[in-house]
Design a protein that fits this description.
Layout (H helix, E strand, L loop, with lengths): L4 E9 L5 H11 L3 E13 L2 E7 L2 H12 L4 E6 L5 H11 L7 E3 L16 H9 L5 E2 L3 H7 L12 H15 L2 E4 L8 E8 L2 E8 L10 H14 L4 H17 L2 E4 L2 E3 L4
Helix pairs in contact: 1-7, 2-3, 3-4, 5-6, 7-8
Length: 265
């Protein structure tokens, strides 16, 4: 371990694939100490979410106060936050710490299709959380929702479409935005980063028939947070984190009947 600390503010995945568990696994792979603030407990596995128990905003705030007051946090990753109150509790604490880069993964819908944001939560995130982020990491359906489009309206989203989404959102909130291309139809997975009016793209070939891809979004955002905590610039952080996730998918393995988990990157 290298003495560096990162913080994840996210929900728990009892199956250990996504959420806080994926973030801690990633932090550990980078040799970074992980601190946690739980925003929700979920009953889930790779095939679906059967229950969600939200943590109250007051207790989320107490967790943040306990961690931020003691640990030398170098970067923060936020994931599932289902209520406006939870989002405001988080943004209220972190807005006073602009020196800590925050990677915001706007988790709206689980891979299985379960809604993970209550009514009004997105509006709160757009007003309070997104403007203080160092990077926003939506997938294409999330980026479509944030930009006011209907998710899935474009049958075969390509790099140019992802770039338009990234630029629109980046310009709207004045922050860097990485639109993840995992929902695209190309033979490569291409993510597009928009920052300051310019763009950069990061492409790697699809891995055919992987054992697992559950938790890749959480893993990517937490890996970027690790890279930033270790002093990388944003483009380098995104490039290295994408390679880390690609390697983790390639090393995924079975942990149950038809149930896999990402390997260590």
């Amino acid at each position: 371990m290298n003495g560096v600390c990162c913080l994840t503010v996210a929900g728990s995945d009892c199956g250990g694939n996504a959420g806080v568990q994926a973030d801690l696994r990633t932090f550990r792979s980078y040799g970074i100490h992980g601190c946690t603030v739980f925003t929700a407990l979920t009953a889930q596995n790779p095939f679906g979410v059967s229950g969600i128990l939200d943590v109250g905003a007051d207790f989320i705030g107490k967790q943040l106060d306990a961690v931020l007051g003691v640990y030398d946090i170098r970067a923060v990753k936020t994931g599932m936050m289902s209520s406006a109150e939870a989002i405001c509790a988080v943004s209220g604490r972190l807005s006073s710490r602009p020196g800590i880069p925050m990677v915001v993964d706007p988790v709206m819908v689980a891979t299985s299709g379960a809604d993970l944001m209550a009514k009004g939560a997105l509006e709160a995130a757009e007003k309070e959380l997104f403007p203080i982020a160092a990077l926003l990491t939506p997938n294409i359906p999330e980026a479509e929702t944030i930009s006011g489009r209907t998710p899935g309206a474009v049958a075969h989203p390509d790099r140019d479409y992802a770039e338009r989404l990234a630029l629109e959102i980046s310009d709207r909130f004045g922050i860097a935005v990485l639109v993840k291309g995992g929902h695209g139809a190309e033979s490569e997975s291409t993510d597009v980063l928009a920052c300051g009016g310019g763009t950069a793209s990061f492409s790697l070939p699809w891995i055919k028939n992987p054992v697992s891809t559950h938790g890749t979004g959480c893993t990517l955002s937490s890996a970027i947070a690790c890279e930033l905590a270790l002093g990388r610039n944003l483009e380098e952080a995104v490039s290295n984190a994408k390679k880390y996730v690609h390697d983790a998918i390639a090393k995924s393995y079975l942990v149950g009947k038809n149930c896999g988990v990402l390997g260590n990157g």
